[in-house]
Each structure stands twice: as C-alpha cells, then as structure tokens.
Amino acid sequence: MAENNRILTVSHLVKNFGTHEVLRDIDFTVDKKDVISIIGASGSGKSTLLRCINLLETPTGGHIYYHDKDITDAKMDIYGYREKVGMVFQNFNLFHNLSVLENCMVGPIKVKKQKKDRARELAMTFLNKVGMDQYINAKPRQLSGGQQQRVAIARALAMEPEVLLFDEPTSALDPQMVGEVLNVMSTLASEGMTMLIVTHEMAFARDISSHVVFMADGVIEEEGSSEDIFVHPQKDKTKEFLSRFRNL
Amino acid sequence: MISNMSFFERIIYLLQNYGVSYMKGAGTTLVIAIVSTFIGCVIGFAVGIVQTIPLDEKRDSLLKRVVIRAIKVILRCYVELFRGTPMIVQAVFIYYGAAQLFNITLGMWQSAFLVVSINTGAYMAESVRGGIISVDPGQMEGAKAIGMTHFQAMINVIMPQAFRNIIPQIGNNFIINIKDTSVLSIISIVDLFFVHKSVAGALYTYFESATIVMAIYLCMTVISSKLLNLWEKFLDGSENFELVDNMDIGNQMNKAKRKGGR
Ligand SMILES: Nc1ncnc2c1ncn2[C@@H]1O[C@H](COP(=O)(O)OP(=O)(O)OP(=O)(O)O)[C@@H](O)[C@H]1O
Ligand SMILES: [Mg+2]
Question: Is-contact B181 B32, C-beta < 8 A?
C-alpha cells in the first residue's frame, strides 16, 4: 500500500512572521524515493517551507506528520526527528572548528552515539561517494564552495536520514562548481534517496524530479510531474515564471 | 645620605635594599591576577552560556521558562553591578561589608581573590555572550539539522569557535587585572603597589620607586601579551592540510619510478 511508503505529510501548514503570512495552507506529501523539486519566485516561501519541515522554524498552524507522528506536537522528540530529516543549506554551514572528517563524524558520534570506528567508516563511505575522501584533514575554510557543499551532503548522509532537504544547494556557488554538486545529487536520486529540493536550476529540476511543486506567494500554485509543470503548465503564474528561464 | 645620591644611584640603592620586597610584591600581584582571571573566566563562561540559552515558548515547560528567565535577570544584575562600580569600592564593600551584613569574616586574601574574580567574571560574561552571538547563526542551524540539542551544539560547535574570539578578551582582562590589583592595597594586600607606597613613603623616593614599579608592571604585561599571542597562534593551527592518498597512488608511482630507474 502507498501508505507504507509515506514519509512526510504536510497538512494545512501555515507560517506567519508577525502579521506577514509567508505560508498559507500548504498541503503535500513525500513518499519513499520521491525526488520533489520546489520552484518559485524569490520570497514565495520555499525556504520557509523547508525550514518548517525540519522545525528550524516553528509552524504557526497546521500539522506535519512523520510517518504517523505529528511532529508539530509539543511533546514530539524533535532531535530524534531531525536525525531522520537531513538538511543541506545554501551556505553549507559546515562546522568551521572541525575538519572535513570530523564534520561527518560528530553527528553519528554525539547524536547517534555510535562507536568512533563505525562513525569513521560511515563518514569515509559517504565522503568517498561525494568525491571528498582525499580532503578529510582539511578545514572547511580551506575548501572551495563546491567542495564544501559536497562535504555538507556527506555530513547529512552520515546521519543515514530518510529524507534529505536541499535549500538552494548551488546558489552560493560559482558557475563552474554547480555541476559537481548537481552530479552528486543526481547520483543520490538514482540510488533511491528521498529528496526535497528547493532550486533555481530549472533544467536540473526538470531532469531529476519525480514531482515538481511550484510555489507563489505562500501557496502551492501548481504541482505535478516534471512534464506537467515544465511542458504543459496550466496556470498563468507558472507559465509566466517558467518563461523567465530560457533553454528549457 | 640617600638625599645626596643621583637618580640612578637611588634606583640602585632601592633595588639593593628592597629588591626582594619588590619581587615579592610583584609575585603577589601575579598570583592574584592569574588565579582571579582563571576563576573570573569560569564565572564568565558560565554566565555567558546561561544568558544565551534560547527559550522555546512551545516546547519548554512553563516552570523551566520562568526559572531560566529569573536566573537570566539575576545574572544581568550581577553583570551590571560589578561592571558599573569601581573595584576599589567593591573591595572595601566586601572586605568590611561582608562581616557586618552577612556575619562572615573574609580575610583580606579571600576578599582580594573574590573581588577580582567576580569583577573579571562580570566583564568576561559580556565578552563570552558577545563571542557566542558573533558566531555565524548558520553554525547552530547546521548543528540542529543533524539533531544536536542546544547544549550539544554549544559544546561541539559554538563554544570552540566563540572561544577563539574570546581569547583576546581573556588576555585583556589578565593585563587589566595585573594593573588593577594595585587598588587592593586599600585592604592591605601587600602587592607591588603596596611595596612601592611603603618604600617610597619611608625614604621619600617617590619618583625612583615609581620608575622601578612601572618597569616591573610593564615587564609583566608585555610578557603576558606576548605569551597570549603565542597561544593564539598555537590554537589557530596550521594553515595547510595534506591530501590523503587513499588509493596509494603516491606509492605506486614511486615504485614505478624505481623500476624505471633500474
Ligand atoms: N525570520 C523571518 N522573519 C520575517 N520574515 C521572514 C523571515 N524569514 C523569511 N521571511 C519572509 O518570508 C518570505 C519568504 O521567504 P523565503 O526565504 O521562504 O523565500 P524563498 O522562496 O526561499 O526565496 P528565495 O528564493 O529568495 O530564497 C519573504 O518575504 C521573507 O522576507
Ligand atoms: Mg530561499
């Protein structure tokens, strides 16, 4: 049954900053192996949606269910939940005081209470996957943006999450480094990682997504398969937004 | 006879006859400064860390929120009180006041360590708080995103980075403490300044004694700041890193070279 595959259910999600309604009645679901791209104009609330999903922002209203547990419930163990929902940030947010390897080990050791050897093994596996295993002794500030972002992905993977959230993972990168990060993400997608990706890389979103969500002014304006949105968009706002991107 | 001497002769005379006293005074000054800076830092870190505990309206219980708020207010008062009044007055207040108000008799040494420590603590608390909030908020978010609690994030990510920013402040406070222990002579602590007052007063050699004492203070502070700089450099570690050769490519190439050479 499809229900068993369901990881997240976002239901009537509302987020206000003061009187500013940033998210209004958002509904959507994430199933195992989904690759969902969230696109939309700047300020439409994409980042806020992702941040609400891993509770970096507290939703003002509505519910978010992780399997059948309501994580917006005040009694929910948000730390255990966040282990399962990884996040990759626009600005990488690698720990500056730790080396590449330590960045990927600190979560498994301190949060998941794993043995050092096991954590190291795991970290090396994922650093290898993102092609950063040679750089384990480097500090984040010694790496290029693309390299930092790949380490950040490895750090998130080392927690063995069920879903990975990406908030514009390539927006802070020089153009020549965008490709290396997108390649890693494509590999993850093809291996069946469940991903929720906020991006302005339209061609990438079109090619990688199993589902595309177009947001405008805090609501989901239109959603559907990659083809539905990029080839046969129905709403005017969607058409207008996509017309800004050439080469699609 | 000392009145017939030249300036330099007087200095040499003072050093010959009171050198040991000066050194003892300097030793006292250093001990108070070192111990009090250390205790002050411990206080400062504790206060600064507590002051930056975030409160979650939704998830923290009412009791927890009320208690932490109250503690924060008390700590705020502590910081304001000790930053806002002169240490010389605090010393008198504690040395003479503690006995009268709370019926505890503090010796002058206890009073000295206490005053300088809590004074340093008040200044350090602000430095620590500043050091913590100056760390990029993205660091805390990165830590939260992998499931760390506020406390785990502070220990593993935030404090190590804040600490680096705070070290210059520790050095600053230490140097200030070396100089400011001089006010403790008001509660009869025989520090370097007390020695100066006694010697100069007895022999009427204010200028010469002050010259000696200034030189000693300057030596202590300059050497301290040099040592602190070295410590900072040490903590910053190396600027370079080495690539790790997982595939053993380097060795294979060496072998190939050796073969080719023969
Ligand atoms: N902490 C905050 N306080 C107040 N307003 C906020 C806050 N964070 C976001 N907003 C507002 O919420 C709206 C949506 O912001 P959000 O960052 O989610 O947009 P976005 O779709 O991610 O845009 P972009 O593509 O530029 O990243 C914006 O108008 C923004 O000003
Ligand atoms: Mg955004």
Answer: yes
Q: Give A128→chain B minimum CA distance, Å.
A: 10
Domain count, chain B: 1
Q: Characterise A57 by phi-psi region: left (phi > 0), alpha (psi -120 to 50), beta (else).
A: beta
Chain A within 8 Å of B167 (Cβ-Cβ)? no
Q: Is the CB of A218 under 6 A from ligand 1?
A: no
Residue numbers of chain A with a pLDDT score lower than 70? 1-3, 246-248
| Residue found by looking up tokens 């791209």 in the block | A37
Q: In this structure, are strands A6-17 and A61-66 parallel, antiparallel, or unpaired?
A: antiparallel
**pTM of the full predicted structure?**
0.86
Interface confidence (ipTM) of the complex: 0.93
Tens-digit pLDDT profile for residues B108-150: 888 889 999 999 999 999 999 999 999 999 999 999 999 999 9
- The CATH number of residue B107's host domain is 1.10.3720.10
Chain B residues close to A89, C-beta within 8 Å: 138, 141-142, 145
Mutation pick from A48, A58, A87, A95 vs chain B, by most beta carbons of B within 10 Å, is: A95
In-domain check, residue B223: no
In a domain, B58, yes or no: yes
Tell me, yes or no, whether B23 lies in a domain.
Answer: yes
Q: CA of B162: which chain A residue's CA is closest?
A: A97
Burial (CB count within 10 angstroms: exposed 0-12, middle 13-18, buried 19+), residue B237: exposed
pLDDT for B186 equals: 83
Nearest CA in chain B to A140: B241
Cβ(A155)–Cβ(A104) under 8 Å? yes
For residue B212, tell me if it sits in a domain.
no
Distance from CA of A106 to the nearest CA of B (A): 8
The sheet with strand A211-216 has its strands ordered as A85-88, A163-167, A194-198, A35-40, A211-216, A219-224
Strand partners, A164: A86, A195
**pLDDT of the residue at A199:** 95
Is A135's Cβ below 8 Å from some Cβ in B? Answer: yes
What pLDDT, in 10s, does the model give residues B39-81?
999 999 999 999 999 998 888 889 999 999 999 999 999 999 9
pLDDT digits (tens, 9 = 90+) for A80-133: 999 999 999 999 999 999 999 999 999 999 999 999 999 999 999 999 999 999
Domain of B62, in residue numbers = 18-190+228-261
Beta-ladder partners of A64: A10
